Amino acid sequence: MASAELQGKYQKLAQEYSKLRAQNQVLKKGVVDEQANSAALKEQLKMKDQSLRKLQQEMDSLTFRNLQLAKRVELLQDELSLSEPRGKKNKKSGESSSQLSQEQKSVFDEDLQKKIEENERLHIQFFEADEQHKHVEAELRSRLVALETEAAQHQAVVDGLTRKYMETIEKLQNDKAKLEVKSQTLEKEAKECRLRTEECQLQLKNLHEDLSGRLEESLSIINEKVPFNDTKYSQYNALNVPLHNRRHQLKMRDIAGQALAFVQDLVTALLNFHTYTEQRIQIFPVDSAIDTISPLNQKFSQYLHENASYVRPLEEGMLHLFESITEDTVTVLETTVKLKTFSEHLTSYICFLRKILPYQLKSLEEECESSLCTSALRARNLELSQDMKKMTAVFEKLQTYVALLALPSTEPDGLLRTNYSSVLTNVGAALHGFHDVMKDISKHYSQKATIEHELPTATQKLITTNDCILSSVVALTNGAGKIASFYSNNVDYFIASLSYGPKAASGFISPLSAECMLQYKKKAAAYMKSLRKPLLESVPYEEALANRQVLLSSTESREGLAQQVQQSLEKISKLEQEKEHWMLEAQLAKIKLEKENQRIADKLKSTNSGQLVGLAQDNAAVSSGAGQDEAAAKAAAEPVQSTSLIGILTRTSDSEVPDVESREDLIKNHYMARIVELTSQLQLADSKSVHFYAECRALAKRLALAEKSKEALTEEMKLASQNISRLQDELTTTKRSYEDQLSMMSDHLCSMNETLSKQREEIDTLKMSSKGNSKKNKSR
């Protein structure tokens, strides 16, 4: 341990030494750079001095030139003064000479003026160049002083570092001496370690014998009683049904019910908030009943009118999630599939918030731009706009975490199991942030409402609408606080319930395995219920055999029944043909009757008998009504009409009346009897055909059921054979795996023996080195 500490100290000192060397190099580079900069500045100073000298020389030349020009001007003035008296004497003769002298004078004046201006300009340039040179020189001097001070500081730092390096070197030398002393103590410890290794070898032999015996025991138990170990692989272990924890399920259902109640309160508060905001837009700053509101507020009002289609699904999604948590299910993140629908509804609501946020901010800006808005009200509006942005951001953050929690039930690779706890804690932080934002909104909106109530133009509508919005915001604040406190109280239970899953495993691997596990759980529960149910009364064996014989005989007589059905169908077709034949005869008889009636009517008109004509018309009406009734009944009763008319015609001769009536009655009775007989035959054929059809249908159903049972039995046979082959393969694989484990254990023991031998060799080498060092020390 002491040697390790010394080595650690030595390494730390070496690292510090390397760091200081690197810093020293950096400082040296800085000093060299500063020296190069100072040299460059000196060169610049020399250049400036040279330029200044050039300018001074130019100034001297210009002054000399100015003096020459001044002398020349004086000479010209003298000549002018001499030429003036001469011009007075010779005015007449010297007009031309005076003109020439004036032209020369004007030329000289212009030349003089140009030289004066050039001289003035050169004086100004010289003064500016002198000032600039002085300024540059002062700057360079100050920079040179600063660079010299920095160079002095760098040199001081370099000196300090050299001192520190010397001190570290001395410390390292001292540590080296201490390490030499501790090496001797380590040699003694090496001797003790050798003795301990011998003891460990003995213990290892004993442990090897004990483990080999236990391994043989466990292998014999596994070979005899464990055909397949499904907990070895996590994919198979995830399909095992965990122990049913009824208390956990009831607790989760209770928590889900409380969350549903809180979400319902939050949904009602959000609906009220958006609805009353829409009403406020219609009232303030412009009342829609008096004047038209702006297009921006109209669009904003139209979007707010759609809030129920985005807010209501939140309650429905939470209700579906609550209904999915029952006493019979296993509630973990991998099985809560309905959480995905709630996340989708929350995403749609956040899209709605993003859509209305720009309109809300522009509406607040429009309120600020109105003439009724004061400075205090404008400040509150700005605070509310910031609060609305924060509210949308908090909802987006909450939706992100809810979407992450919904991933294990749909996409298992989307969220690692190690991140479940962090996501759950972040959900709690997001809920607390939502509560804080709602408190700020409630505070700022209450201040805004009080300011608006004090305005002289505030109407009763605006006051009531502000009160309603404030009450909805307070309800939102209370609901957010309740949800945040409720979640913070239960987040530890949520994190602890993540381990609720298959035994001896980290949890469900995928949503598919969780769904399969739930199906197996339902099958197991149904099997346990079927075991608890009382057995139904079974059919006695003799009766079952008799029913089977009946079934076989009925199946054998299927062809006979088919022939009977064919014969009955043929009879039905014949009866239909006879029916059509008799209906045609009835129609012909009706036509003959109408012709006879027409003929009788013509006869009666010719005899001028009014009474007989009236009687004939009455009987014709009666006969036509009877014909309609009998046609509706689909029976051929038209001969009755003809007999009645014949009776009317024969009333003129009293002797022939009874014979005609008796003949009509006979015909009527004959046809009625024939119709009754045919209808009875038809009904009998119908009933027989229906009976045969039902029997054929029952036989076809029995045949289909028998074929299905045969197919099911063949499939079960195939599955059983596949299961047998699979179990045999699994048995061979388990045997091979245990043999591999045994070989691995033997290899491990061999490697341990090799490490022990290496340790022995190292101890021997340490002994030899310690002996050599001791001899060297003695010789020294």
What is the total tally of β strands? 0
Sheet with most strands: none
The H/E string reads: HHHHHHHHHHHHHHHH
* Ends apart, CA distance between termini: 29 Å
Portion in strands: under 5%
| Cα-atom radius of gyration | 60 Å
Shape: flat
In quaternary terms, these chains amount to single chain
User: Which residue ranges are poorly predicted, with pLDDT under 50 across at least 5 consecutive positions?
Assistant: 611-658
Number of helices: 16
Class by SSE composition = mainly alpha
Instruction: Give the averaged pLDDT, no decimals.
Output: 77
Helix content: over 70%
Structure described in brief:
The protein has 780 residues and is mainly alpha-helical.
Structure report:
By secondary structure, this protein is mostly helical. The protein has helices at 2-89, 95-225, 234-237, 246-283, 295-304, 308-324, 338-369, 375-406, 420-453, 460-496, 511-532, 541-556, 558-606, 610-632, 638-649, 657-779.
